[in-house]
Amino acid sequence: MHQVRLQIKGSDEARYSYSIDVQISAVLQYWSKPKNYPLFIRSVPVQNELKFHYTVHTSLDVVEEKISAVGKAMADQRELYLGLLYPTEDYKVYGYVTNSKVKFVIVVDSSNTSLRDNEIRSMFRKLHNSFTDVMCNPFYNPGDTIQSKAFDSIVSAMMVQAS
Amino acid sequence: MSIPDYMQCAEDHQTVLVVVQPVGIVPEDEFFRIYKRITSVAQVSIRDSQRNLYIRYRHHYLPENNEWGDFQTHRKVVGLISVTTCGSAKEWPQTSDRFHCQKDVFGATLYDSRLLVFGLQGEIAEQQRTDVAFYPSYDDCPDVEKRVEDFVESIFIVLESKRLDRATDKSGDKIPLLCVPFEKKDFVGLDTDSRHYKKCCQGRMRKHVGDLCLQAGMLQDALVHYHMAVELLRSVNDFLWLGAALEGLCSASVIFHYPGGTAGKASGREPSLARGQGQAADTGKRHRPGALTANGISADTSSEIGRAKNCLGPEDIIEKYKESISYYGKYKNAGVIELEACVKAVRVLAIQKRVMEASEFLQNAVYINLGQLSEEEKIQRYSILSELYHLIGFHRKSAFFKRVAAMQCVAPTIPEPGWRACYKLLLETLPGYSLCLDPKDFSKGSHRGWAAVQVRLLHELVYASRRMGNPGLSVRHLSFLLQTMLDLLSDQEKKEVTQSLENYTSKCPGGMEVLTLPDGLKLPPVPLSKLPIVRSVKLLDLPVSLRPHKQKGLLENNLSSKSPFIYSPIIMHTRGEERTKKIEFRWVQGDVCEVQLMVYNPMPFELRVEHMGLLTSGVEFEALPAALSLPAESGLYPVTLVGVPRTAGNININGYHTSVFGVTSDCLLDGLPSVRTSGCVVEVIPSLPRLQLSTSLPRSAHPLRPSKEELSSSVSVQLFNGETQQLTITLENIGSEDLETLEVTSKTCNTKEKLFGEFLSWDLEEAVSQLPLKPGQSVTLTVNVKVRLDFSGGENLLQDLNDDGISVTGLPISSPLRQVLKPRAETKALGSESSKTDYNHVKTLEAVMTFKYSGGAGKVEGYYRHLSLGVHVDVEPSVFFTRVSTLPATRTRQCHLLLDVFNSTEHELMVSANNNQDLVLHPSECQRPAAGSSRGEPSLYRSMSLVGWRSRWLSSTFTRYPSRTRKPCATPTPNYWRRRGFTPRPP
After folding, report:
1. Which InterPro entries does the protein's record reference (chain B) (predicted)?
2. Helix and strand counts by DSSP (H, E) for chain A
3. How many CB pairs under 8 A join A and B?
4. Rounded to whole angstroms, how far apart are CA atoms B58 and B39?
5. Which residue, of A20, B48, B600, B620, is most buried by count of CB atoms within 10 Å of its CB?
6. Residue B514 carries which DSSP code?
């Protein structure tokens, strides 16, 4: 894979850097019939959000593929963290899937070197914990968009920390 | 070489390229007809050998791509078939020249060429030429395929000879250096004698021979040559050619492993056959004819043993592809080769179902820079990326690129934006965004999907269709957007969307028809069932006076035969049945029927709904549309839709029809599970006449007390006890049917009061004689209202008498008198306020008159209607007994009863008694008639009744005071009695 990636040429001219670290956390519900839709989506900067919608939406292809590949091997002892889904010119997209097939996607600026695999992993874990809290709320209807303030603040805190 | 062929796949390496081109003027459709016939010869098995030759046909090929023919021989044009029209022999030389010119374009590489001439007959056509075939017309050319096969065979011979020529190892000879166009200048002045150079030449030649072997159907030889080439080229770091050799190796292996092809579609090969062989190939038992029995010289190292070793395994293929692509990547000018290699690798991976790796290849392909691309090429590139992503099952990614391609079609740099193409591509992205343009899919439950992206896509569809000049489509898409995404739009967006919808509908009103696009896609209609949202549908019964009733005798057995149980706690019916449940009441043909909808407006602005009407089935129904205007975000709002059934039968209310923002929609209740309804099927019975009732008396303000029955109207009148009033009732037939029968009955309501005589009486004879009553005609009926009530009893009028009954002296009764003497109006007011007060003697009498009538077709079916008229009468006592006293009579067993009678009315009235002595009382006059009475002797009881007052002298109490009054006279009666005294008549 890296061999292929190294061959990304001609794109160097087109590469432009972002001064602001960009990151999205999207939580996606997965139903038995693959109909994913966002439960929660947040990005900084807020403008051009649609672009991230597209990025996250397309990344689901990879997530689904990875799940189906893993699912065959060992259903119970699955690694929740899916790792780097795919790199784009400007962003790195990471994925995470809970056992109930809720997907988390984090998109970070690819120029951000402070975020390594481990940091991303811990971010996902935090996100998962918070999501569990949301699900524990008896007034939350599984499948509804998340409006929890606690969840929101945790995501915001993570984004501040990361940038 | 700048234009990549995105359709390439690995097995194209074994094909030979033949260009088919028209020469001169050839009608396009005729050319493509011939082209199609030629391309049907895609695979030719060569005589005397068991090898196959595969041909790739192109009707357009860039000569500059041909220059790469040495690098990969399948890029070399080796055959040329020209198609031309030639009308006469005179034109022949010119045509021939043109053909030669065309040959020169690819001249360097051509092995052979053919000219197919159509339309030429005569001397020239007679001559037998191998390179030219003459046909009289495009329709008359039966042996085109045969010709092409011959042609392919001749190409094969050249190919085979070239292969043999190159393959024979003439180590002594100097091997020419093959090179790609951009390398040529690099080798100028290079030392041609160096080892490095020689090795380079050898390696490249090996690779070339490998290509030729592959084309000639000798797969195993090709593999061997490629392996050797890889080794040679690796040692001299000739990366570009090393890459090509590796790719050749991959291609050959792919051809071996996947004989079904990787292109995904039938590429000339018989797919069924290939698929059948595919399994065999996997087990390694398959023998490729060409590889097994290599006709001619078997290449040096090729042997049976080496075959399996030489061929790459599925894993290796991908590894080698990666390597090869990485080498290509070192050269900027080989971008097209790299891109094509990526595409080929993706196709192979798709077959292997290794999706993740395929996506990596594609990801790489995205970043390959081919320099300046024309817009058209960009579109093509994005489209093919989308197609490939689709191939590996990445539908979202595929949709993304398709959308990019669509946007590219209308990029601002393009002078003539292709909105049509853009629209078409956008439509193709819909499944990727899990959108389906059928609103029925959305009506189930709440919306699930990536709304932000879907809304954007719908907006783009709207815009593209508008620019395409098809406002009908825009309207349809906008309606869809409004209908399905309403909950997700902000208030501002709602406003914008509806505004643009109104703009579009001003040009092209939206309807309910299915729009069919030129490519056959059907856009189902979008009923705007959310504008306004209907919460419940309730069918209303007819007003009381118009309700039809069934004749008793004709009543059918109403028990449902569904279940043998009278009662079951299990509710059998489901929601769906509820809808079809029949409603108790009936509607009448020709009468206005009403359905009440509870609606609300979810929009943040006033919503104008026009032409709102009912959709029905079962009977002919004339819906009378209504227009309404709902305030912004209104609460539930009742709307009554009306219509007239024109025929009889069962009517089913299917839904309603609206027109909002210029979009007309038919909303069917079946598709709206959120609508509550208590049944939608109603029986419509044949038409009945309609009567309108009017009376001579004023209408009653207060309804009848026991309002058990609903009355169509009621009258009220105030009468003195004993008074008679005439009530004229006019019945007018305001319907459209003849009135045939009329029955009148009456029923007195409050039975507490004892009523003497007939309260209401009438003579129907005259009215009935006028039947049947034509529409518009009327009949009158006179009803006599007579009140005779008993005002005695619990009244306290003579209360004092009880205490003082035994005393024979006169006793004054003052209090009731005073009460009665008050002005009448006041009494009335008092009566209404406190009718139960002790001193109010007004009694009410109520009755209901029922007019049963029928006629027309409804009568035949046994239906009738009834009108009911409530008659409310306030009865006031007309006389009072102010004083009672007794006088001893001549006989001890008798006594005289003296009563002071007071006329409380303003009228003169006549008091009559049993003995026919009439007494006329003037208003407010008091007289004393005398009555003889007996003491406790029953036999005398009757004879003791005087002046009509039957009295009983029992335990010193008057238990009854019946009064008989007559209608007050305005003028004094002639037999005016002025007798003050009373002479008791002896019994």
Report:
1. Ig_TRAPPC9_Trs120_1st (IPR058565), TPR_TRAPPC9_Trs120 (IPR058564), Trs120_TRAPPC9 (IPR013935), Trs120_TRAPPC9_N (IPR058563)
2. 4, 5
3. 89
4. 9
5. B600
6. P
B395 touches chain A (CB under 8 A): yes
What is the model's pLDDT at position B169? 61
Radius of gyration of chain B measured on its C-alpha atoms: 55
- Predicted pLDDT at B710: 65
* Most trustworthy range by pLDDT among B26-30, B283-287, B723-727: B26-30
Which of A2, A29, A54 to mutate: most B Cβ within 10 Å? Answer: A54
- Is the pTM higher than 0.95? The answer reads no
- Can you give the pLDDT at residue B959? 27
pLDDT mean across residues, chain B: 74
Q: Nearest CA to CA, how far is A90 from chain B (Å)? A: 12
CB contact under 8 A, B359 and A65: yes
The shortest CB-CB distance from B448 to any of A5, A37, A60 is to A37
Closest residue on chain B to A27 (Cα) = B450
Chain A contact for B407 (CB, 8 A cutoff): no
Q: What is the mean pLDDT of residues B854-874?
A: 83
| Number of residues written out for chain B | 987
pLDDT for B939 beyond 80: no
CA distance A27 to chain B (A): 12
Q: Write a three-state SS string for B618-687.
A: CCCEEEECEEEEECCCCCCEEEEEEEEECCCEEEEEEEEEEEECCEEEEEEHHHCCCCEECCCEEEEECC
- Quick check: A86 and B359 CB within 8 A? yes
C-alpha neighbours within 13 Å on the C-beta side of residue B606: 5
pLDDT value at residue A111: 77
Three-point CA angle B407, B408, B412, nearest 5°:
90
Secondary structure class of B806 (helix, strand, coil): coil
Taking the CA atoms of residue B662, residue B667, residue B673 and residue B675 in that order, the dihedral angle to the nearest 10 degrees is: 80
Contact status, residue B335 vs residue B180, Cβ threshold 8 Å: no
Answer yes or no: are the C-beta atoms of B614 and B577 closer than 8 Å.
Answer: no
pLDDT band at residue B296, thresholds of 50, 70 and 90? Answer: very low
Count the helices and strands in chain B (H runs, E runs).
27, 34
- Segment B46-55, tens digit of pLDDT: 877 778 888 8
Instruction: Note whether A69 contacts B356, CB cutoff 8 Å.
Output: yes
The tens digit of pLDDT for each residue in B330-376 reads: 888 888 888 888 988 888 888 888 888 888 888 888 888 777 778 88
The answer to whether the Cβ–Cβ distance between B364 and A60 falls below 8 Å is no
What pLDDT is attached to residue B448? 63
Mean pLDDT of B679-694: 83
> In Å, how far is B439's CA from the nearest CA of chain A?
17
Q: Residue B932's pLDDT is what?
A: 47
pLDDT single digits (tens) B612-628: 888 888 888 888 888 88
CB B911 within 8 A of CB B901: yes
> Which residue, among B337, B385, B453, B487, would best test binding to A if mutated, counting the most A CBs under 10 Å from its CB?
B453
Q: What is the DSSP letter of B969?
A: B
**β-strands B863-876, B843-854 pairing:** antiparallel
B contacts of A52 (beta carbons < 8 Å): none
Instruction: Say whether B607 sits in a helix, a strand or coil.
Output: strand
Q: Does B96 touch chain A (CB under 8 A)?
A: no
Residues contacting B918, CB < 8 A, separation 6+:
B910, B911, B912, B973, B975, B977
Distance CA B987, CA B979 (A): 20
Listed in sequence order, the residues at least 6 apart from B734 whose beta carbon sits closer than 8 Å to its beta carbon are B690, B691, B692, B775, B776
Q: Which residue has the tokens 């070197």?
A: A113
pLDDT computed for residue B942 by the predictor: 30
Coil vs helix vs strand at B516:
strand
What pLDDT does residue B792 have?
A: 63
